[in-house]
Design brief:
Blueprint (H helix, E strand, L loop, with lengths): L7 E7 L2 E6 L2 E6 L7 H11 L15 E6 L2 E9 L13 E5 L2 E9 L4 H17 L4 E9 L11 E8 L3
Antiparallel strand pairs: 1-2, 2-7, 3-5, 3-6, 4-5, 4-8, 7-9, 8-9
Length: 165
């Protein structure tokens, strides 16, 4: 069974790159600076498991998002779907609306490492610049698979918001 993901429309594709128009969506987010995103994952997972003011449970979605600062993960977020209002968290998390944006995406597989993230971020920045876009925010790491999936099967993306001229 495939998990739901955030809504978007593909504007352009070029090998491993995509330009996407992201529609509005919500996330539950934990602001935690760490190297691998596990502490933030736990806070978000507790929220969707019912640790919120309504004790409401939510389906797991993909991807798990991590805002990057170099190769460090600044925060972790889960996408929340199919509602316009969400109960407040009881733990170390917040609800945030993410407004429509234009994103440039680099798809890649493998287990995430500092070396791989540095290389992929450089490739994404080079692609953005060579295609005349200007970076507005990012990058975000989007991971689509649970940790027990073998590295060569893992689906990942790096995402950067660009100005929509």
């Amino acid at each position: 069974m495939a998990l739901q993901t955030f809504p978007y429309t593909i504007i352009a594709t070029d090998q491993s790159f995509e330009v996407r128009r992201m529609k509005d969506y919500f996330v539950v987010k934990a602001n935690v600076e760490e190297s691998r995103g596990y502490v933030g994952f736990d806070a978000c997972f507790c929220y969707i498991s019912g640790e919120n003011e309504a004790s409401q449970r939510f389906a797991m979605t993909t991807p798990v998002l991590n805002k990057m600062e170099g190769v460090k993960m600044k925060d972790t977020a889960f996408v929340l779907l199919n509602q316009d209002h969400f109960p407040q968290p009881q733990g170390n998390a917040t609800i945030e609306k993410v407004n429509s944006s234009l994103m440039v995406i680099l798809k890649f597989s493998g287990s995430v490492s500092d070396q791989l993230l540095s290389k992929k971020q450089a490739q994404l920045r080079a692609y953005i610049e060579s295609n005349g876009y200007t970076i507005k925010d990012g990058p975000w790491l989007a991971r689509y698979n649970p940790p027990f999936i073998p590295g060569f099967l893992k689906r990942n993306e790096l995402m950067m918001e660009v100005y929509d001229d």
